[in-house]
Amino acid sequence: MTAAEIVFTALGVVALGAGVCTVTTKQLVHAALWLVVSFGAVAGMYLVLTAEFVAWVQVLIYVGAIVVLLLFGIMLTRAPVGPSEGLNSRNRFAALLVAGSTAVVLVTLLWRGFRDARIELEPGGGSGDALGAAIFRQWVLPFEVLSVLLLAALVGAIVLSKSRADRGSRTPKEG
Amino acid sequence: MRDVVALALVTVAFLVLPLLIGQTEHKVMAHMQNRLGPMYAGGFHGWAQLIADGVKFAQKEDVVPERADRRIFLLAPGVALVPYLVVLAVIPVGPGQVAIDLSLGLFFALAVMGIGVIGSIMAGWASANKFSLLGGIRSAAQLVSYELPMVLAAASFAMAAGTLSLTGIVEEWRWYWLFWQAGAAAVFFVAGLAELRRPPFDMPIADSEIIFGPYTEYGGLRFAFFLLAEYAGILVLCALTTVLYLGGWKGPLLPDAAWTLIKVFALAFIVIWVRVSFPRMREDQLQRLAWVWLVPISLAQLALTGVVKVVTDL
Fold this sequence. Notes:
Chain A is mainly alpha-helical and 175 residues long. Chain A contains 6 helices and no strands. In chain A, helix 1 packs antiparallel against helix 2 and helix 2 (28-48) runs antiparallel to helix 3.
């Protein structure tokens, strides 16, 4: 085992452990903070795989924006210090079953498909230059189509929230 | 060996420069308000006031409120402070004079700076105090709206230079950037001030309405850490603006590092000046400034940068 593999495995254990803590903790805000640890560990794994750009995007978008948004939402609704009772779902065994079987399927798939595959990691392979050239030369069409998809989702979100807000504000007058 | 020395220097800078900015703030604010500021500690114009403050903070009792979430309450000041130290390591002060030269330095700096806000949100929630919680929520709302214009403005500099490396950006810098990138610089600086929750964007800590926001329950050294994080944030923001917009170490006669320091402190003076001059913005004005002004300006600047870049490359 090389040093990189050891670090990679350790980070994977951290990511997995933090993920388990996220779903098992009895406190909503702790769950969001464990998610930060998990995302951070995943960013570290990207770094070990020389995907620097993806790693920093992971930190910027997921840790810096998504988790902050999650925390904002949690704190805006209800987030008492101490365990909250309503967090125990009755579906947890079903959820465990689904999660477990998905994991088994995915691991088997990867194991059978790429068991003998080896990727030679070269420094700079995931740098801004390499990634930019790949996206805007080779993969430019999928990239642009993806942005159209995101735009459609954005417009849809605005339409959904707007139409509901209009209905809400009109009801008192009509009624 | 060189790395160790460089990292030691970064740590020294991290410990000394924010204090210098703090002392400058004491004196500049005082003189702008027609008073003297601290005059006794240490003799000459009260230069030792911040050291005295530090000793005072260290002597105070470390209180954790009974109902608080103890672990997160204790962890929050560290989460607020450490990211700025990490960012400082990638900022170049001269050609090749940088502790860690990342090819994605700009991206790294922006990504790590965003983490600091989680510290203030954690503090706001874990204090189990409604004023703190309000402050934490406001911090989060502010980060979410100002992160976008800040990243867009930074992208404009990266496009102009054709690289994401901070050293590379300074090397590509030319005097006409002062006009060409002025919009991006304004957006970057204003959005950065808002991310640091500095006045006039200090709605999250608004002392006259929510006491001190997320920091209300803190005292002693942990409170001092939050203050230090604020000044370290000013240092990092001014250093990044210097590197992106003011040409970093470039300048006649004086040595490279001196020019970097002069530019950083000139910007820090502006940060203090702004604090003294403008009243605090209301929450809706804050959000309005971000979405109605900063985002469109940064998008227009991106378009301008792109067009100029394409035309001059022909």
